[in-house]
Write a structure and sequence with these properties.
Helix content: 55-70%
Strand content: 5-15%
Number of strands: 3
Strand order of the largest sheet: 1-3-2
Length: 207
């Protein structure tokens, strides 16, 4: 399960390219590069039509990402425990057969070796299958996170009129940024409000 060690936490970086240079629909019909007349959360007029958000802050503060991390970690723990049980059974059977090796006939020895080989193949296949399942689950959750961010930004941009909203993170080739165009606080607040509403609705459905 070497591949499992960091999968659950890898979602911290899963949105590296989330909505990068995502074109949103607000004011798309206007000609030229006229400045937006929208305002940020402080009520200050937003100059320009490109806004950005800090992806590391989204990864750290978006409650749904924390939920996804927890789900992946729990899934990983269940898989690890199941594989460890199989490994223990495999090693136990090897020791059992080894203790009888001196009294085995050639045919019995060959049969024992074939059994060990089959158990080893089964263990390897199970580990590979579980790793693939966990990666597929991670990918689906990543897509869901991307979708939620995109949906929120579409609604958010309806009153802002940005042409582009981009994500920024360490290592990006952005050497200057106008912090008045930073919508991270708005995005974190809005995403978490949406998360709490969805979570509340799910609880009501279960009653």
């Amino acid at each position: 399960m070497k591949n499992f060690n960091n999968i659950a936490l890898a979602v911290l970086a899963l949105a590296v390219a989330v909505l990068f240079f995502l074109q949103l629909g607000g004011n798309s019909g206007k000609k030229g590069a006229a400045a937006s007349t929208g305002t940020d959360s402080s009520g200050v007029s937003v100059a320009g039509r490109i806004a950005y958000f800090e992806m590391d802050s989204i990864e750290q503060e978006y409650l749904y990402i924390k939920e996804v991390q927890s789900k992946l970690k729990q899934r990983e723990q269940v898989m690890t425990a199941e594989l460890q049980g199989m490994r223990n059974g495999y090693m136990g059977r090897i020791q059992q057969l080894q203790s009888k090796a001196s009294t085995m006939s050639q045919q019995e020895g060959e049969s024992a070796q074939a059994e060990i080989n089959q158990m080893e193949r089964t263990l390897q296949q199970k580990e590979a299958k579980m790793a693939q399942e966990l990666q597929e689950e991670q990918f689906k959750l990543m897509q869901d996170i991307n979708k939620k961010i995109e949906e929120y930004l579409k609604d958010y941009n309806a009153s802002k009129g940005y042409t582009y909203i981009i994500s920024r993170q360490a290592g990006d080739f952005i050497y200057f940024k106008d912090t008045t165009l930073n919508i991270t606080i708005d995005l974190v607040k809005g995403l978490n409000e949406m998360y709490n509403v969805d979570k509340g609705a799910k609880k009501e459905e279960k009653k």
